[in-house]
Amino acid sequence: MSDTPGREPEQRLPATRPPSEAAPVETAPVERFSSPASTRSVELSPERAAQVVRQSSNARWVGFLAVVVVMLFVALYWFYEVGTPLGMSESRLDQDATNQAVVNVERGYNVFQANCARCHGANGEGGIGPTLNSQEKLYQHLNANYLNTVLTAGGRYVCGNAKSLMPVWSNTATPPGPLNYRQIQEVIAFIRATDEVTYTIRDPELGTPEVDPVTGKVKTFQGWVDPNYQPPAGATPYPACWADSFAAASAAPSGSAGASIGPLPSPSTAATTTTIPLTAQGIAFTSTELTVPANQPFTIEFDNQDVGVPHNVAIQDSTGQYVYKGATFPGIAKQDYVISPLAAGTYAFSCTVHPNMKGTLTVQ
Ligand code: HEC
Ligand SMILES: [Cu+2]
Asked: Which of 104, 112, 115, 116 to mutate to test the pocket of ligand 1 (most atoms within 8 A of CB)?
């Protein structure tokens, strides 16, 4: 049936139900909500108003505390980043730089041992190549720039010797050497490392500290540079070519050593009775045992067979004191060293340029 106007009211929907057995009378309208009326009221009750006030006060506190926490975090992070005042802690970047410097030195140690130690000595004490660990040289001569140039241009840069035994190391040179720019930086960092820091020797591949199998301790090394070193007053700067430092030094001691020996005739005037030959070849003396008579001047006929490599002969007594230092000169050349009489005993002779060129001189 449709509810169209024009019909009788009782014919419109909803149709009134006729009383029946199940529902004998019309039921009262049912409340649709079960909550109390106050909650449905739109007005702000006094309790509700009080609650709103309390809640917004809490919310302000939460907000305030959140701001405080953020500010504390910012402050703490700030000091973590730039370091706390009064030097209580180092800035993060400085700390990273320090760590990186240590890593460079430790890796440079490995580069040096693998490539340079066979000529310059495990500790830079010198050998086929010149000494690198002397404070005199490290003070100014062996600066990072110079090292970089020498490693890029090769040993010929040092004294202008085209046949220098030291090859080019940097792979940026033509023809390229075996070391990349990182390794060059690292080996320079190692040579310039300060002796005030103890560094750890690490496995070149794994980077793990190396442990001494005997003592069970981690192996360490110290840098070479003494930051407090000052050259003696009036000292001349180290010569650009290291060989010149021997040429300059060798003149004086040979004469003064003779004076201390006593009233024996000076070697220049007395005819020497003994002449012994000595040859240097391949950065080594061909004979390591020499014998000369005691209390008599003698001559060492020194034959340097190494092209462009400077050598000399120096004699030390049992206390390590130099009693004679011959002039240093590059090969191929010959020179006679006239040496003042020596008291009987055992002496050591060596090349001051190449400390591992040595032998024994027996005076009897
Ligand atoms: C084959 C031997 C040899 C090797 C290996 C070698 N050098 Fe040399 N080095 C020499 C010789 C020899 C000289 C002297 C150059 C000359 O006068 O011809 C020299 C000179 C130098 C000098 C200049 C020293 C000075 O007093 O001016 C430096 C620095 C140097 N070497 C560093 C290194 C480094 C770093 C390595 C390893 C990457 C290395 N050398 C590997 C033989 C070697
Ligand atoms: Cu020598």
From this structure: 116
